[in-house]
Amino acid sequence: MQETKKVGYAVLGLGVGxxxxxxxxxxxxxxLVAVCDLLEEKLEKAKEDYGDILTYxxxxxxxxxxxxxxxxxxxxxxxxxxxxxxxLEAGKHVLVEKPxxxxxxxxxxxxxxxxxxxxxxxxxxxxxxxxCMTPVxxxxxxxxxxxxxxxxxxxxxxxxxxxxxxxxxxxTWDMDGGGSLMNQAIHTVxxxxxxxxxxxxxxxxxxxxxxxxxxxxxxASLIKFKNGSSATFVSTxxxxxxxxxxxxxxxxxxxxxxxxxxxxxxxFLDEDEEESKKMLDKYGAGNGSLTSLDPGLVVGHATQVHxxxxxxxxxxxxxxxxxxxxxSVAIANAIYDSARSGKTIYFE
Length: 348
Known about the structure:
CATH class of the largest domain: Alpha Beta
CATH architecture of the largest domain: 2-Layer Sandwich
Helix content: 25-40%
Structural class: alpha/beta
């Protein structure tokens, strides 16, 4: 039996990009060929950690390597569209870190280049692939939860001033596109719209309370959806020492609560307590408990890295496309627009 060929992979940016590199190494169909970063010490560490790989400080030079078929773009947020388009035009498929970019207009350039080249582009929103999110999504989509009434979403994290000072781009409008919302909470914005549906309007407040940054370290919003439900959404990097990431959805037939990757509440009118206990026993300890029981289970970043490799190898759509990811960027920018103007922002 002929072996499936391994797809050559490179990682651009060795911050969160280290997670991508590890995921490539854990895949059966991918081969980590190269990494690219401006800092030589990061490249030296990558060679120690990942073995026989090429290292680049010159992105254009890396693009000329014919052994590289996919590039993970893990640069600062505002550089995503530019470098993704350049990679696509050089014939490379791309997996883009969140957010897809900091504006809808920039993200649409990625979608246009994807269409023009016919190449694959995926976007990281790995929290959709936490193990517990599969039954949560199924309960909503199947009608098991009943009519959606309310969601509460809160990203209560903590970041030091040193975190923002390191690198010089975090907490800036030009490069980060925002603060706690666009950087830390964009994953949860994605989960909110994925679970609750299309947004009708947002009404928001934001401010800087505990850091010396130009954007925000707290947002609070009321979100209304086209299906008639509502949600509150809070993001902050002021909640010492870092508390929770709450995803809570309430319908006419039940309630579901999740914190990070752990199921905390599973309660339905038509289900006995024994079934609820089974769900909490299975998903209550998070991804780590499930992967220890099933080493073949893939969650988080690895899900999407393995997926983009298979998308290239077997010519299929990535799990999350640029058009999917644009939705969360549009919502985040509407929250900012509302907070600046003091007005409710409506979606078409």
